[in-house]
Structures are given as structure tokens and as C-alpha cells.
Amino acid sequence: MTIEALNAQIITCKKCPRLVAWREQIAHEKRRAYRDWEYWGRPVPGFGDPRARVFVVGLAPGAHGSNRTGRQFTGDASGDFLYPALYRAGFASQPDSRSLGDGLMLKDLYIAPICRCVPPGNKPILEEMKNCQPYLEHEIELIAPDVFVALGRIAFERLKKILALDDGSIVFRHLATYLLPAGPRLVCSYHPSRQNTQTGRLSVEGFDAVWMQVRQLIY
Fold first, then answer.
1. pLDDT by residue for the chain (219 residues), tens digit each?
2. Fewest beta carbons within 10 Å, which of 65, 121, 174, 213?
3. E-only strand ranges, the chain
4. Domain locations in the chain as residue ranges
């Protein structure tokens, strides 16, 4: 299976009735600021370089970000914090991510979430994450990265299950880096959500340190 074939499967997925209803409701009602947009309103596939050495794992699409634009971390505050950092680190062709047709390209980096549809309250339930897990597993097999970056504790815990990391010494801490049994590295980062960036928990400098670490690991 190719990334393109997998993405074609992902965007037609209807495994989770709660998420199907919620993503479509948001796409129909819209936010006033985006009333002229035709919302994506479907599962959001992964995005990036299919030969990437770095695989970034996030949580889920934003209601009026990825669920609107159809691309990971595009059109919301989390993306406004993430992509400038990737640009500064040399992983993105531009610092802005506004829409599918904006010309953004990722270099040596691929992004995918643990949940492909926007969940109510930004909180997917365990069954929904399990339904989505095979998609992430296939992507990991296809990309075969040298470095994983977990954005947030939930992504970290789900990635640990996928990679069968039962070692109790592998715990989530911002900037923690682990050498995994099969060879890849795992880097932990706070999620670039407003909850973290506006409270100062995740600063620009602290986020840049993550991507500097990643850059050092692949060279």
C-alpha cells in the first residue's frame, strides 16, 4: 500500500458514528469568520514528505482548523505555532499554513494524528482512538522514520502502545528523548495548543529546542 492509497481509505472512513456526526455538524454550521469556506468535514489524512526521517504524532483535527482546511495543523492557533517552528528548523518551506493550496511543503518530516476526525471537546474516547490506530500503524510502516516526535501526553501514550514500549522508564517529559529497542528515537514535546502556548507552559524557545534536538538526531 502507498501513502496515497492509505489516504484515500482514511478520508472515507465512517467507523465512529459520534465523530462522523460531529465533524459534519461543524462543517454545516461553520464559524461566522469562515462562513464562505467549504469545510472539509471528513477524516484528515497525514501530511508531509513520504520519505521523511521524522514522524510527528499529534492528537486530532481542530474543529475550525484541519476539519475546515483538510490538512494537519492548518488554519488554527496550534498550526500558527507549529509551522513557524518547523520553518525555522528547516523542515517546512514556509512559516504559514492556511489552506491546501498555499504551497506549503514539508521536508524530511511527516505529520499524522492519533484521531483523524475532530472530537467533541477535543477529547476522543478510547474506542475512537483504537478505531484510528491501524491508519497510524500503516503510516509508520510506510514511512519507517528514524525519529518520532510525540506532541502531547495522549499522543505519547498511544505511540507507546503502537510501538509496544512497556518500559516504565519511558515517561512523558518535555524534551525527553529515548532510544527505542528497534532503533528509532522518540522525542517528547508539549502540544502547541493555546492552552500550553498562552499560559507560557510552551514557549517559542522551548519549542525550538525540540526541533533543534530532532535536527541533531538525524545528522
1. 899 999 999 999 999 999 999 999 999 999 999 999 999 999 999 999 999 999 999 999 999 999 999 999 999 999 999 999 999 999 999 999 999 999 999 999 999 999 999 999 989 999 999 999 999 999 999 999 999 999 999 999 999 999 998 878 899 999 999 999 888 999 999 999 999 999 999 999 999 999 999 999 998
2. 121
3. 47-48, 54-58, 109-113, 147-151, 177-179, 185-189
4. 3-217
Per this entry, what is the length of the chain? Answer: 219
Q: Report strand pairing: 47-48 vs 54-58.
A: unpaired
Set of cell numbers at residue 33: 469568520
* C-alpha–C-alpha distance, residues 177 and 169, integer Å: 11
CB count, 10 Å around CB of 16?
A: 23
SS3 category, 57: strand
Tell which residue, 105, 130, 114, has the closest CA to residue 47: 105
Q: Provide the grid cell at 128.
A: 475512537
Kindly write down the DSSP assignment for every residue of 176-202, as one continuous string.
Answer: -EEE-TTS-EEEEE----HHHHTTTSS
- Give residue 59's identity as a one-letter amino acid code: L
- CATH of span 3-217: 3.40.470.10
